[in-house]
Amino acid sequence: MKKRFVLAAAMAATAALALTACQQGSASGGGDNDNDGGGESGGGEEVVTLEFQSLSDQPLAMEAVQGIVDSWNADNPDIQVELVQAGWDGIYDKLITQFNGGTAPDIIHYEAGSIAPFAVDGYLADLTDLINPDFASDVSEGIWESVTVNDQIIAYPTTLQSYMVFANTDLLEAAGVEVPTGATMTWDELREIAQATTTDGQYGLGWGLSSPTATFMSLGLGFDGGYFEGSGSDVTIDVGEGELAVPEAIHQMAYEDLSLDPVSLTQSGSEVLPSWYAGETALTVQGSFRVASIGTDAPEGFNWTVLPPLEGSVSADQAANPQTYSVNIDSEHVEESAQFLDFFTSTENLAALAYADALVPASASARDALAEQTADENGWAAVLASGDSLVAPPFLTVDAYTQWKDTVATPAFQRFLADEIDSAQLQADLTDGWEQVNR
Amino acid sequence: MSATVVSRPGVSSRAQRREAIALVVPAMAPIIVFSVIPLMAGVYLGFTDATLRRNDVADFIGLDNFVRLMGDRFFWESFRIGLVWAVACSVLTLLCAMGLALLLNTDLRLKSLTRVLALIPWAMPPVVVAIMWRMIYSPTAGPLNAALEAVGLPAVNWLGDFSTALPAVIVVAVWSGMPQTTVLLLAGMQQVPTEQLEAAAVDGANAARRFWHVTLPALRPVVLASTALDFIWSFNSFGLVYVMTEGGPGGRTMLPMLFTYLEAFKNRNIGYASAMGDVLVIAVLLVLSVYLIQQFRKGKAER
Amino acid sequence: MNQRAWFVRPLQYLALVGYLFFLGFPLLWLVSASFKSSRELYSLNVTLLPVEWTFTNFADALERQNLIGSASNSFVVAITTMVLTVLVSMPAAYALARFKGRLRAVGTGWILLSQVFPTILLILPLFLILRTLQLNDTLFGLILVYVTFTMPFSLWMLQGYVSAIPRDLEEAGSMDGANRITVLRVIVFPLLLPGIIATAMFTFVAAWNEFFLALVLIQSPELSTLPLTLRNFIGVAGAVDLGPLAAGSVLATIPSLVVFAILQKKLTGGLLAGAVKG
Fold this sequence. Notes:
The complex is a heterotrimer.
Chain A: H1 2-27, E1 48-54, H2 59-75, E2 79-85, H3 91-101, E3 107-111, H4 112-120, H5 133-138, H6 141-146, E4 148-149, E5 152-153, E6 156-157, E7 159-160, E8 163-168, H7 169-174, E9 185-186, H8 187-197, E10 205-207, H9 212-219, E11 228-231, E12 234-237, H10 241-255, H11 269-277, E13 283-287, H12 291-297, E14 304-306, E15 310-311, E16 318-319, E17 323-327, H13 334-344, H14 347-357, E18 360-361, H15 364-373, H16 380-385, E19 390-391, H17 401-417, H18 423-437
Parallel strand pairs in A: 1-2, 1-3, 9-15, 10-13, 16-19
Antiparallel strand pairs in A: 3-17, 4-5, 6-17, 7-18, 8-13, 8-14, 11-12
Helix pairs in contact in A: 2-14, 14-15, 17-18
Chain B: H1 13-45, H2 64-70, H3 73-104, H4 111-119, H5 126-137, H6 143-150, H7 165-191, H8 194-202, H9 207-236, H10 239-245, H11 256-266, H12 270-302
Chain C: H1 8-34, H2 38-41, H3 56-64, H4 67-98, H5 102-116, H6 119-132, H7 139-164, H8 167-175, H9 180-209, H10 212-217, H11 226-231, H12 242-267, H13 270-277
Helix pairs in contact in C: 1-12, 3-12, 4-7, 4-9, 5-7, 7-9, 8-9, 9-12
């Protein structure tokens, strides 16, 4: 008898403890950022310390970020920024625990597609009225949309990437293909070049699509293929002609034209590069940031260029998924954080950051500055030009997107790319899967 | 003979209990704070609609999550894959490790080299293991396909092909799990009294019979414990697979824990995900209890 | 002793070489990659050894990431976890193995439950508890968590090894009039030593390799452990710096090899045979 009671009491105590722990975590964020140092509000003399969690991990980028922080700290003795270095790998999980545990830093570096859920869940400060108007007008509407959640701007967009076609110019020449020079290139043109450069046992195009969903979501925009209608939990999916255009074009090249290496479809982007470097494929589609590493990784004497951006039936639009800098809603210094971020995103700083990571700066002025700086470097002009057609993709604010992407879309696209199902089945799988996920 | 503890005359069962408690207490303290409480909280969350929203208030919703889970065919498909994966990993690991441990327990040359080599895979972070094997399996620039082509066989797209992806990751799991099981078995073999083996040898039992009738029965508790844990860990692991295939191709390596992770962290429905966790616990315990009871019986019968 | 067929030996060696190859080849490949230039890593030319040996990957790994610092953090964490876990779980495992009854049922039940329930779902409550105790972002907190998380395994393994020790040995000891402690120390402990070593190795490795808990519990870069640092070679969108990562991994394996070399001698020494007979 007595034992029973003890057991029950222990269980109750345990549950209560756990529950209080949970509630504490969500509620106490505001008052609990004691490691922010100097958090005591009051006298104007106080030095404010902002914790800034940065993910930039390439040596050049780390240097650039440190440089910006150092010069800010030198000029602003009252608002000191403390740089905390983290890594990209696992950062999502880290942020989940930081926010739920109330230990998130003041300033948070991430990317639009992945930070949006945190905004939806209410963890990010509304920056709409804090952003410097000059910067606001310097960045395109499409990019601003990508960092707008529930009509609030929740991050400073900084640098972006697009998908570009990289070509081995020697192989193009050998196949008698002229390098296209237009402002854009149609999918048919890509198909023709891939066919022309396909020879006995060698494919014209290698495309690393082991994680195909992001690429299809992005390039689909050129065919008006947005997949989703609505935002939040009130969303419908529409997989039609526009959505299927890109997967079908790729499928056609791989299995009808035999001009796209089907093995490459199961590899990652960087795993496809060796074949391109070795001259086995003439073309490869890669993230624009590759322009920076081709110089060091390609064999000597390798001649290459970047082809004009791909244009779909409607436009050359691709998804804008900028890297972002957000402010914790529970930070005691939201305004100071925004001030620092205004400085962080100034033309000069943004150009330096973008150059270090080989990405496209979000602001037009920084793009111009970078264009001047990289005038002599191969590929940069095309990369920077692609910045004009980056727009917010509909999936950014869709609640169950990630779950659908990982459990439904990616497997379905992979089956389609492996020629295991046809496009009607793909369409059915994508749509049914969305319903299953949202049951 | 094994009814109770060392039954010394004059020792009351109360003193025994006190002794037992004294022995267990140091282990209990950290377990209660860092394991039992989070565990209770986690199990309980499965009965709520908790999310990861800011200032979320979780309501108790009874069995709703479980009812919903019953109809979630993606979950059950991943559950099936998880079972195949866990059984294959634990059985293959046990077989490979047993063979290696037997070899290492003899007087062969090379065995000290093997013993050290056998331990290295164990000391590598899973992410490094995964990246290293991705290099080996690479369809274009990997040594495995280069070797196949050198002897005139067709290249295989190991991780990209629907039929080879799961077996390929299982091989990696065996590679990285074998060292640990080997060490455990080897330690167990060291405990087998040499007198018994010698006696059996004198009776004319050959090596196979000695293994079957002396070594294996003596190893039973160790084999039991390590296979059971291997099974659980394989079922629960997703780090290795996540880096290697991200659940692909076509969902062929979507392990249940990966699925639960996506629901908990990416979809932020921690309540529903905890319900998945609860179901997984029950399912795995059912599978295990069948195995354990059967093995315990066998063990008793042989004694 | 007994006659054995002539083919047994060669077969044994064949099997051993097979194991050696399976276990060793991937490692060889990794070591070789750590000496290859990025240009060579990005070529289709598959060679076992680097065409051109380069040390830049090692320089890069050491310079770019706080490899030494995080290795020493990992070492401290892993060794402490190992010692604490073994010290705490040895008596408890003995109790589990020898005192049948409710204790055993509850103990076994908890061990299984704690291993089966997804760690991912324990992270948030655990994080909140540690924060309440002000132990987040400390190596000590990390060690306590590792001790807790490796304990089920070491309890279970150790109780398995204890069960394997014939009870008559202990009884014989106590008949001789030795007290409980002496029996444990003189008879049980030496027999148990290989099991303890194996368990210790396990806890060391588990703490050495653990990534997820360290990721969420450790904030300060100067407290970062090795798996965290190695992960920093994986950049945005999973892009991997193969060369430096390979070099970093090779360097990172050395300390645990040293620990293994020391422990594994004890694992299978001649010392044990004597103990059993004595």
